[in-house]
Amino acid sequence: MQQPTPISTHQRIATIDIIRGFALLGIFLVNIPALSAPALIYDLYSIQPAYEGMDRWVRLIYDLFVQAKFYPMFSFLFGFGFYIFLSRAELKTDQPRKLFIRRLVILLTFGLLHLVFVWYGDILHTYALIGFLLLFFYPLRPKTLLIWAASLLFLFYALLALPLLAPPSHYDSLNYIGETVGNNKVEESVRMYREAGYFELTAYRFQNEVLPVLEYFLFNIPQILALFLLGLYVGKKGIIAEPGSHRMLIRKIWGISIIIAFPLMIWLTSIELGWLDYGVHEESFSYLLMNLSGMFLASFYIFSAVLFLEKIRMNRILQSFQAAGKMALTNYLAQTSLSVIFFVGLGFYNKVSLTFGLLMVLVFFSIQLVYSHYWLKYFHFGPFEWLWRSLTYKQRQPMKRKDPPNKKTTL
């Protein structure tokens, strides 16, 4: 049996690392309101937190340009990365699927540990579990993948639209639950995060956060699997790997994406600023529009990066995200872990504004950009990437670079 060997770091597609680095910033922006306040409890009991002053405008910016825009990018990149991994593994081992399954099991372990002991918003376990389904789609033709992806997206958005069919009495019931049980649950959550010890808080989180997140898993499958398949499709077609051969198609996708996203964003703005009133269905309309626009804006972001990388002036700017993208797993876990230490450990939970959270993300991520750049001058991988890689191939991977860093290299 041929011994599996890891893919050389020189074989990576730089564009994907850059896009992943950019998506990492967006994911941090999306996560920070949930890391600093009981956002899950708000969602579970249909409570809308009130934003005033600058926070109201920051929330609008989030909904238009950030919320539901970056996890589609990450999901797309996971599907693309699956194609790269498996197609190259086929050249190096006679058991590429077994290798990928081992890789997913390790990712699932990371995700479950992160979910239970650090933060409920973990995405790693979701990607790992849905990732197993990709093995059934890998042999399919690109056209068939598109049909499956479109069908799954239609199902997902149909499910999102179902609340629009609910009678007003349904929303009266939700409002009553939110104003009674929900408000009490919010107070309980804040008290536990501020006063409970780690083990007491972990037990509380498991019952009130981890279990609801796991119960919600099935709802995530259609959209995330569809995005995985779109990434697999792009990988099979070589659209990002060989952009020069697909320039017209890339520009077409780029143009269509913004043409569809822009009016949806205007529509969403009109609702959130009170220019349009949909009564009891207003929140459901906003959520549907935010997710629909997010899908097309994510596509616009991805292919903007692909097009801009062909321009010398933009190349250096976008490359600053490349090192962070290569260390995406390490940086993602660092973002959540250090945020939990700051908000929970230092007593700032539910005490900071949305604007402060935004500024905190920009400062911390800037540090990550610099740190990642210099780390990769001395090491081949980030710490968790190294661990994941070593466990996948069942052999210790070389960590330190043998060649000395180039002192003239700048970020």
Write the layout of secondary structure elements.
Elements: H1 14-36, H2 39-44, H3 54-66, H4 71-92, H5 96-117, H6 124-131, H7 134-137, H8 142-161, H9 168-195, H10 198-215, H11 217-237, H12 247-272, H13 282-308, H14 312-319, H15 322-326, H16 328-345, H17 354-378, H18 383-393
Walkthrough of the structure:
The chain has one domain (9-393). Helices cover 74% and strands 0% of the residues. It has 18 helices and no strands. It has helices at 14-36, 39-44, 54-66, 71-92, 96-117, 124-131, 134-137, 142-161, 168-195, 198-215, 217-237, 247-272, 282-308, 312-319, 322-326, 328-345, 354-378, 383-393. The longest helix has 28 residues, at 168-195. Mean pLDDT is 91; it is low at 7-11.
Q: What's the order of the H and E elements?
A: HHHHHHHHHHHHHHHHHH
Main sheet, how many strands, which sense, barrel? none
Which word captures the global form?
globular
User: C-alpha Rg, in Å?
Assistant: 22 Å
Mean pLDDT: 91
Tags for this entry?
411 residues; mainly alpha; 18 helices
